[in-house]
# Entry
Amino acid sequence: MPASRLADGTRTPDRRRRARAARRWTLAVALIAGGLARAASAAELAPRVASYTIDAVLDPDAREVSGTAVLHWRNPSRVPATELFLHLYLNAFANNHTSLMNGMGEDAERWQARYPGEWGRIDVAAIQIGDRNVTGDLEFVSPDDGNPSDRTLARLPLAKPVRPGDTLEIRFAFVARLPRVFMRAGHAAPFFFVAQWFPKIAVFKDGQWRAHQYHAVSEFFADFGTYDVTLTVPSPYVVGATGEIRGERDNGDGTKTVTVHAEDVHDFAWTADPRFRVVEERIGDVQVRLLIQPHHLSQAPRYLGALRAAMTRYAQWFGPYPYPVLTVVDPGPGGSGAGGMEYPMLITVGTAWWMPAGLRIPEIVTIHEFGHQYWYGMVANDEVNEAWLDEGLTSYVEGVIMDDTYGAGHSYVDLFGIGVGWVPIERFRYLAAGEWDPIDKPSFKMLDSESYQSVVYAKAALALRTVDRLLGDDRLRDALREYFLAWRFRHPTSRDWRGFVDDQVEEDLAPLFSQLFDGTGVLDYAVARVDVHEVPPLQPAPQGEVGGGPGGEPPRYRTEVVIERRGEVRMPVDILVVFDDGSETRETWDGIDRWYRIDITSTRQAAYAVVDPDDKLALDVNRLNNSRMRTPATRGIIRLAGRWGLWLQGALLALTGF
Amino acid sequence: MVRAYLRGARAALQQWPLVLALWLIIGLFGLAFALAGGAWLSDALESSLATRTLFRSLDPDVWVDLWYHHREGLRGLLTVAVVLATVHSVLWWWLHGVVIAALQGTAAELGSVWARGLRLAPTMAALFAIALVVLALFTAAVASAAYELLRWTRTNPAPMIWYQIGAAAVAVWVLGFVFLVAVHDQARLRVGRARRGALSAYAWALVFVARGGERAFPLACALQLTGLAVWLGYQAIALTFDMTALLGLTGSFVWGEAFLLIRMWGRVWFFAAQNELQP
# Structure
């Protein structure tokens, strides 16, 4: 569709062409550079900036992991690094005044009341650079909110700057005390989910540290590298981790040591639980290892079925999953806080023993979290500042896969004859709090977690579905494929995404993207009027003709349909007018003005009009006003109101039973 | 117990004019709520296609929009439901008296049982208040016990233990509820039969049912199970109606009202059967 119809853009065609050409050159140079870099080491998928060798021991009774880590960090920038920033994420659970706890509000208070004293933290006992112990130089900083009680980010000044391309070796000794899990990492012993657990270096990009504290509504951003990790746990524990398990050794003292290796990943998480049952399956070239609780074992086929659907479609639509393994973790009882999360080569899911087949929560979670392997895991944008670029894309594709796999009208719920698909669920989430923040905004600056959930997940996904339906012919999906292939392992920004997609679809989508991602305006088109008036015969009748009327020409009617734009977002909309003889007419309006009128004079009378009859505008905040009948029907109302009357009688009669 | 169960059914059948009248009264409440619901839907849906399509398809998007754009009206509708339920409960202080007067033969004519029921209404109201307090205390006790057990087992790794505690709590509550309903019913009957005050009648009934007097509790369980069986039978048939066709929809309404009539007869039957046990 022509760009001019998408919105009232301000860029001139020449500027657009120049901008597009510049982007193409930049991309071409980047691809060539990336290709040359990869050719130097064919096995490397990603620039290996931060690689760790970690040796860790789990003490289940103390809920602690003690370990040492050796970090090899290469300065990927073009300027020397005079300091390092380290994430110490577990300190978010160290007291009730951390930024994360403040952001969690009542949830955090409930957690503290339920599990008093179950705090978590990370103590960095020693930091060594070369022969120098620099532990004392570590300084906690709170650049986002100045919170002195938050120790999730630390600055480490360097005695000697690290020049561009040089590699620095840093040694850590640390103890990670795991909280009772309520947000991603922790324990519900004997279930342990160990994530964000070691001193994690921040991202140094374009000469700047991209480092933020750990907030209630923000996730992560890290550089790629290799991980060689040995994990020592009590012998009965089953271990799952990011990467391939390369070996398992019995230490003869009631413990065992598991050796894990992962390449081209930007984080490392692991889990241990003696109750895990292991279900393995090969999907394509990937060895899938499902660690599932015994009482959920009957639901293993549900997880694996959803995973097959996701892996097949992602491979087909976007590109291959390049890692050899994928671990799927079903959290233990009380460990649901660890569920529904993504880590490289490892996802956590969740279910309950009573989960009916028609309530597809395990499937949704599995498909969603697997999707993150692509957008979070490989594309790896900054999830703190541009969370939508991962969560929005993942949620959008999740919806497409769910609808494609289980049927659009009942992909989420299919119970007792009631079907609910992806769109109404996402609309429900979006409308809860979708007007407070724009999509493209640092998540920790959003109003609250409700706004974050509504905007970053639901609104972004619905916006993408709307763009998809407007473009048609899978053009958005094709563009996303190219985006994935071009930008994986490269930390793209929202700007990169917009420019790239704009180029791929060869439309000027910038004004549309600006409305959808930068503003808080809503999309709402409505049929305001459907009026029909009989057209009186021409008076006075032309000379030589008898005036119209009974027995003359059939009566003619003027149908007037008025469409209104009630929201701020403008985009082209289709309008359908259906007449009482079943015939229909369609028009497309550019959607820019406040209203649009359709005038039709014929022998037919309009029965009703519908704006967006093909449900392209998933982002429309009110679909009830998308249609209007000349004369409203009553059958639907009688059905529902009658049923409610019966239900009330039943309830009242039940009350008389006491 | 069996004799009371059967004789109660027969006695309730003999009271069919009363059953019919009670059913009509409750029908008025249903009609009022249906009209309120219809008015809200008409206002919210305006002239949209949903006024037609909801007949065949319960489009979830319609519910999303009703929830977010017409919530005030929905709150109003819920208020109507609460008011109707309150008025109905108050009305049944009288109607319970009517049922008992009719069953205990203290008024020969149907016309006069209404007046006799009205005289019993204040005592029925007091009994209702007592029963409500006792039920609230019992519910709080069960919930507290379950909560403490859940707290105690919060870190227990057994995967099913929380479900087991929940199921046990529900089972205990259901049994206790049936017991308290039996006590309340026996107390109401006692008020009619022995002209006792509410507190005295409730205390008497509590002792009567607790001591297993005339197997009052097993009879109450049998009657409740009968009610459950009838409900299951109703649902089994109700599911066969095609709600997307006019005939099916009409049939479903008729069947629904027939079921309510049967339930109303059941309510009288419960009283009649338990009345058989009263000394």
